[in-house]
Specification:
2 domains; binds adenosine-5'-triphosphate; 5-stranded mixed beta sheet; globular; Nucleotidyltransferase, domain 5; binds fe (ii) ion; single chain; 10 helices; alpha/beta
């Protein structure tokens, strides 16, 4: 069985093809970029419409297959930016009708977790999902994802990007912060863990104040932000693993590219005889292969669900 998956929740339009064993046959993406700071939704929609046919043709070519061999079309139904979701939905609807395929709408966040799980051949991990928008500790229990803890304000990636904008690092700021942090030392900033939840907005305010007072270097701020925020998440996820007895930790989302973050989680896992896993770069970002695989897993329970812009992973 071959499944074609389409991603379009935000800046990336992607098409991937996987088998029912989780083998990735192709994974083609094209992302909207802009020189200005933010995304302009109308421009993203134009981008997705302009590249869709080309990306799909390339994905079929790379997988050495035709539409005849595709059994199922999966798409990212949410969460995401409303117009981007509709652009993707209209495309998959058109393809499904033209080639007579069943449609399966899937949750974008669940797809990030599933592709990491099959890639690493995991059994029952505790998930730490840290992207621009999301910061969540998640487990799978009694047939559902449960969010054990999350940010109560902004996602860590967005916080790092906002901090980067304040001190003039360009976008995305995460990689540059990581570089500068190597030359920094610790200055005291708030450490905000509330039960199983975390909060980053007070930290952002504090580092902005320190930066404006001009008596702390950029390097020291980068180092201190990293050490503090990563330690907060390491603490929470360790508690989640202790409570649930999970022996595997899987880190997903763009902030997972950070070497220091991975090092902290790795140490925490080794100390409790658990194992730490992450996903390779080509599967870490938004792409169609993860949507195709999640579509295969959900093929009997989901279908054409249109779009769900605010669909949480624990509502799946
Ligand atoms: P999602 O839709 O899954 O929430 P997203 O588009 O919000 O995804 P990702 O693409 O998963 O986010 O991650 C992007 C974030 O990762 C950015 O905020 C970026 O600054 C951050 N990031 C990338 N590399 C690093 C790094 N080396 N260290 C820290 N943060 C990083
Ligand atoms: Fe994503």
């Amino acid at each position: 069985m071959k499944i074609l998956g389409v991603e379009s929740t935000a800046h990336t339009f992607g098409v991937g093809i996987v088998t029912d064993e989780g083998k990735i046959l192709s994974n083609v993406t094209d992302s909207y970029t802009t020189k200005t700071a933010g995304m302009i939704p109308d421009e993203v929609v134009d981008h997705h419409n302009a590249v869709a046919e080309k990306i799909c043709t390339k994905a079929l070519q790379d997988a050495k297959c035709t539409w005849d061999e595709i059994d199922l079309v999966a798409y990212s139904a949410g969460p995401g930016i409303d117009p981007c979701l509709w652009a993707g939905y209209h495309k998959v609807k058109e393809w499904a009708q033209k080639y007579n395929k069943k449609l399966v709408g899937v949750n974008h966040c669940a797809a990030h977790l599933s592709i990491g799980k099959i890639y690493n051949k995991l059994n029952d991990p505790c998930y730490l999902y840290v992207s621009g928008v999301n910061t969540q500790t998640i487990v799978f229990e009694e047939g559902k994802y449960r969010v054990l803890g999350e940010t109560i304000d902004i996602g860590l990636g967005n916080m790092l990007d906002k901090f980067g904008r304040i001190i003039g690092l360009g976008f995305p700021a995460g990689p540059t912060i990581e570089k500068l942090a190597k030359k920094g030392k610790y200055v005291e900033i708030p450490y905000v863990v509330k039960g199983m939840d975390v909060s980053f907005s007070g930290i952002l305010t504090k580092v902005q104040q320190l930066y404006e007072q001009k008596n702390v270097s950029k390097e020291d701020l980068c180092f201190s932000i990293q050490e503090t925020c990563f330690a907060m998440l390491t603490e929470v996820v360790e508690r989640a693993m202790a409570h649930t007895g999970k022996q595997e930790l899987l880190l997903v989302g763009g902030v997972g590219a950070n070497t220091r973050f991975c090092e902290m989680l790795h140490i925490m896992c080794s100390e409790r005889a658990a194992k730490f896993y992450k996903v390779p770069m080509d599967l870490a970002g938004d792409q169609g292969a993860m949507i195709a695989w999640e579509g295969f897993l959900r093929k009997d329970e989901s279908g054409d669900v249109e779009v769900k812009p605010h669909w949480r992973v624990d509502e799946v």
